Amino acid sequence: MPDRFYDFYDFPSGITKDWQKFYDLAESYKKSIKQLLYNEANFQEGIYSERDILPILFLFRHYLELTLKALILQKQATIPMHHKIKDLLSEIKKVNPSFQFTRESLGFIDWITSQDEDGYKFRYPVDTKMNENFVSDNKNVAKGVSLSYVSTNIHQIFTEIEKITKPQPY
User: Fold this and answer.
1) Looking at the whole model, is its pTM more than 0.70?
2) What separation in angstroms does the CA of 126 have from each of 63, 78, 122, 156?
3) Per-residue CA distances from 74 to 17, 61, 86, 114 (Å)
4) Whether 109 contacts 87, CB under 8 Å
5) pLDDT at 64
6) Using DSSP, how many helices (H) and how many strands (E) does the chain show?
7) Is the pLDDT at 136 greater than 90, yes or no?
8) In whole angstroms, what is the distance from residue 8 CA to residue 6 CA?
9) Which of 54, 83, 65, 37 is nearest to 141 (CA)?
């Protein structure tokens, strides 16, 4: 494997606008998500954990947040400084009324936000009061979520974002 060097401080010369910076980072999350989905689908040995899907869901949720913020920044100078996907979707509809997801994709986004409204639950085993996330007596626990359901919906949303926005960061 070739060694790579990373410079966190300089974006390529073509990335000068704030929305491009958000989109560029979102694309890096997307690349990681695709790799993790591939690895999970082809996992054949070792110890398996039901929680292996949580990093994928966290990265996807954050990808979606960054992408929505990039799209908002394309239309206005500021973005909401929160992590609520539903509110960002409402904001994007205000600044770009033609932007829309399919009903299936919105259903998956609704499921994601019902599990992790503000971006913390997929990251930690407990909440800020040390209550366990995803315990069996919690009615919001994700039960029986298949890898194919997650993978299919994530890839569909990637495709929809590319078709609807056709963002060109460089």
Assistant:
1) yes
2) 22, 32, 10, 30
3) 9, 20, 19, 28
4) no
5) 97
6) 5, 0
7) no
8) 6
9) 54
